[in-house]
Hints:
Layout lengths: L25 H20 L8 E6 L2 E4 L14 E4 L15 H10 L5 E5 L2 H7 L4 E2 L13 E4 L8 H8 L7 E4 L3 E6 L2 H25 L19 H8 L2 H15 L12
Parallel strand pairs: 6-7
Antiparallel strand pairs: 1-2, 1-4, 2-3, 4-8, 5-6, 7-8
Helix pairs in contact: 1-5, 2-4, 3-5, 5-7
Amino acid sequence: MRPAVWEGGPRVIPGAEQVAEPGSGSETVQGLRDQVAEAARVLARLGLVTAFGHVSARAGEAMLITPAADLAGVTADRVVEVPLGRRAGPLPPGAPAEAWAHLALYQGRPDAAAIARAQPPSAFAAAATVSVMVPLHGQAAWLGESVPVYDDAALLRSAEQAERAARCLPDGEALLLRGNGALTLGAAPGLAVARMWLLGAACDVYLKALAASGETPSGLRPSEANPVIPLSAGEIASWRAVSGELLPRLWEHLRRRAGAGPDAGDVQG
């Protein structure tokens, strides 16, 4: 399976200035802070978070993460730096209590360059229904060959809790958290946000397909029901092969839709 950083170039977001590898200077870090803040605002404007949620990016031996605040108003100067090696003790002032989830994923997934944490409404319903969600349409394959569910609704407010959740995502780019939203990975903050939007859409499709078919999440169905047909392994592979080309285009569309990209005023809701 190809890793999360495979799509496009790391930290290259359509419409945002390309920055070099973190750690090469203060301008580089500032550019990454700008990307994290913009991705967070788009996440909020798309309705994927309310007062809770965060976006982060790997920056050398640290991560840059949005503060414990409403993401709709987050600016680059409020982004918090947290050492990646932090395993215990208090988090830096301003960091969200669930920053542990980001730390655990960066430690367990060296391929992860950015993470989004949000609560798409359909994710709550899907995670309460299944233990793993398989893709039913092509773009859903950009989330992974399947999307696992972490079966514990407790907040990820300790290193231990976060590490248990992170172990559920050894590969793939999305994790549903039963009763607690979701986490998505990407090669840049905007691509992680694009995957979060896509995860919400994939959950909608999955739930509607189950309802239309009469099939239960376990696969049991009345004799008159039509089966839900997931993508085959070959179909999944074919869609994943083009994610590097197409996922950045989705992010550019979502930026405009949220009023953050070029010609935003010409794009309707």
